[in-house]
Amino acid sequence: MPGTVLLLAASPVGKGCLVDAASVLPVLAAVPPAVLAGADTANVVELADPLEPQAVLTRLRAAAAAPGPLTVFVTGQLQLDRRQRLPHLALARTTPATVRYTAFPWHWFREELRLRAPGATTLVLDLHADAEAWEHLRTAPLDCGRNNAVYGRVAPPPGRRAVAVPTYMKAVATILRSGHRPPLEQLHQQAWGRLAGAGEAGGIVLATHTPVAGDPHASITAAVQSGRHAEADALAARWQHAAVQTHGPASDEALHWAEVRADLAMFAGDAERSCRTWLAVAGTRLAAGQAPDAPAVEAAVDRAHHQWGKIRDKARARELGPALAELRGRVPGRREGALGHVQRQLRQLQTQE
After folding, report:
1. Positive or negative, the Cα torsion across 132, 133, 138, 139?
2. Cβ distance 170 to 19 under 8 Å?
3. Could you give the CA distance from residue 16 to residue 245 in angstroms, rounded to a whole number?
């Protein structure tokens, strides 16, 4: 089965730049795609200094939906948004004051990759943090999702007015240019050894393996990839029921399985059911006291909005539109004009047969 590789290198333009992220792309691009992916053949997608977080999200979402192994190489810098103090990958237009709207929220990696089977996804990271993000990461580890293998490092900010070089990722690329991809843990150790030999091995080491067999997500993913959508939803429904009985309907465990079922409806092409489920998840989270700008709340409303736009039955779309508009009024999200978009679309639907 062919693999998929996503090469993402991003850093702000101008004086806010901490690392010359894009400098690693020519070295990675010289590696044969199959070696990058650890597969017989591979599709490679390259994002060099992207401008918009939504563009990155679109490419990540497409890569996450592809069957076969996925390897994501990320080089760039981490900054915190001022409102929630959450890590973001800075993009070309990012400044300290605009992180929330111009940078890529790190938790989107976790959200988009969460349905992939354990062992199917690897992230290779070479990140530099600004001073605030560095202090944050010393007590709050970077969350890349429980099903994903993660290798790399997070380095502290370079000296004043200095621009760092992504030496870890260049070491990885140089090793891979030999035409052989060793086991990932060995690749990480070799790259780290080169940095240590050059006196550049500072920072937080990332080396996280994937969990134990038997994870139900693997069975669900296999069913989806085989087109057995009803079977996948039935399995997720059993886990959701067990979570509700054990932990309660507003628990993280129960809401996780509700979100899984919303995604499964999307994969099955049932936009209405997916929208309804995301609306219910958002409402439950808000009723439980979660903030309107909490990442899980924003993600639920954004996905409900996205799926609502894909409902072909106009009567069903009209039915769900007011609930979405009410939620959008409370949860505007990161995209400017989202509430206005819902209101305009709803008015248009109401004038149609």
Report:
1. positive
2. no
3. 50
| Cα-Cα end-to-end distance for the chain | 46
Of 208, 230, 247, the residue that ends a domain is 208
DSSP 8-state class, residue 312: -
Q: Output the CA angle 283-140-303, nearest 5 degrees.
A: 30
Expressed as residue numbers, the domain containing 112 is 3-208
Answer yes or no: do 254 and 304 share one domain. Answer: yes
**Cα dihedral: 125, 128, 133, 135 (round 10):** 100
- Residue spans of alpha helices (H) in 226-294: 229-247, 252-267, 271-287
Condensed to tens digits (0 to 9), the pLDDT of residues 173-229 reads 999 998 888 888 889 989 988 888 777 767 788 877 655 745 788 788 888 888 899
Rounded distance between C-alpha atoms, residue 114 and residue 257, angstroms: 11
Tokens of 27: 């070295």
Q: Quick one: which of 148, 120, 83 has its CA closest to 298?
A: 83
**Contacts of 77 by beta carbon, 8 Å cutoff, 6+ apart:** 10, 11, 12, 17, 18, 19, 21, 89, 90, 127, 128, 129, 130
Q: Mind giving me the DSSP string for 89-125?
A: E--TT--TTSHHHHSEETHHHHHHHTTSPTTSEEEEE
Give residue 7's Cα distance to chain centre. Answer: 14
Burial class for 48, CB neighbours closer than 10 Å (0-12, 13-18, 19+): middle
Q: Are residues 104 and 235 in the same domain?
A: no
Co-location of 175 and 282 in the same domain: no
* Type of residue found at 56: V
Q: What is the pLDDT of residues 54-109, one digit of tens each?
A: 999 999 999 998 888 999 999 999 999 988 899 999 999 999 999 999 999 999 99
Angle at 132 between CA 100 and CA 108, to 5 degrees: 40
* pTM listed for this prediction: 0.71
CA–CA separation, 236 and 245 (whole Å): 14
